[in-house]
Q: What sequence folds into this?
């Protein structure tokens, strides 16, 4: 899995039938900045993930990929390879909290 | 999943039997340009995807990869790892629409 | 899937039993050159794929990866993650043919 | 699989039900430094893995990805694509030990 | 699949039960050097693969990844995503042998 920031959403009306009603989020994988590891920084990549947890723009989420994206009750038969499995409250590296959901408005995360 | 632009198609006559009649699109994954995230830009990569939705050159599509590509009624038994699961109408980032299908003729997307 | 050029083959006598008799091709994924997209160029990567279609050195082939490589009659139970599912006749980008099998002797594809 | 260093953990309260109680580690894949191959160095990437072995920050672990992450008794039905399958005692390259768990306090591994 | 050089091994005593007794090799994917394609060169990446064929340090092996790593009699239920499916005797590119097992002592492969 990886940690990603929700940056937006996509709309698609012509799609595979089983995808009707699925919420499609645009997410951007983040990584720890090197060598300090004291903040999250964007990888610059762009993915689309199905979300059933109510994540919103600006949230950091935990993303699972591949066949495992079908191992939730709602996604079992969907042709999807990327799903939100959690909304991240905090990322703790060594003895430091490098991301905390409530304090994010004042975040200094790069690439934000 | 990821958003990709349809750039063309491939023709193959000698192929695995189950692939007969499948439409093979050449697609190019796009990502949000950094750091502005105000337009889509190409990753420069080239994939081939099966399409059953009627996507055409210039369309942006939603692509699913891996075993999930076999989770549509038409692709269940195909030896494919990449399929179009939707035609993208719009990509919305924060409060901005960075891609809208109807307005794409006048698009300024880089790498187009 | 992706388009790759067959560059050679490998020989392995000590191998998993089910792999006996399998033809192992060395293939090199190609991509459209940017920003023109008017020819194929190598990615510089090297993969090994099982082939049952009779592809030869110099041919461009369509490659499927992952579990889907086991979705052909001959490869169902093999421990393989990469298979040739078609020999490419032509790659057509926008209104241009950037690769055509018969004309390849005089090709100007870079990285060839 | 790959060798990764445990750098921290993440907390997520809103998550897919089956994920309740799972320990989520932040891990960083390492590789052999080139061309000497005499120490491990970070790839700079960041993953999140489920751990059931009690790995702690600073440990090197063996990570398995994809559907195989579901092939342990505890993870069979989880929507996860990354799991710790072992805690690494030593990495031995040619005739040299480039990492040994007990001696790691005095390690000179770069990117640490 | 890809061709990789065996560079070492790892030892892990605390591990998932089903992994007991499995030999864990450190392997490094190689690719054809560009643009000549006349020798193998390292990609600089580091993987860990299960081996049941008796490969040793210095051998080139054929590696299969993902769920296919579980398609050998010995690995069916293991949580592994990377396995040695053959020991490479030779790699033949166009009309040249760029690697031959017996002659490897005098090899000029870069990144060795």
A:
């Amino acid at each position: 899995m990886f940690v990603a920031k929700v940056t937006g959403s996509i709309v698609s009306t012509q799609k595979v039938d089983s995808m009707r009603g699925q919420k499609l989020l645009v997410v951007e994988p983040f990584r720890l900045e090197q060598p300090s590891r004291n903040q999250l920084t964007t990888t610059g990549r762009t993915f689309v993930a199905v979300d059933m947890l109510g994540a919103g723009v600006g949230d950091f989420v935990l993303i699972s990929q591949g066949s495992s994206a079908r191992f939730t009750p709602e996604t079992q038969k969907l042709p999807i390879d990327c799903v939100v499995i959690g909304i991240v409250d905090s990322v703790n590296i060594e003895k430091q909290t490098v991301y905390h959901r409530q304090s994010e408005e004042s975040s200094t995360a790069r690439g934000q």
In short: Chain D has one domain: 2-102. Confidence is low (pLDDT under 50) at residues 104-112 of chain D. Chain D touches chain C at residues 67 (CB under 8 Å). The beta strands of chain D are 2-11, 14-15, 23-32, 40-42, 47-51, 60-65, 82-87, 90-93, 96-100.
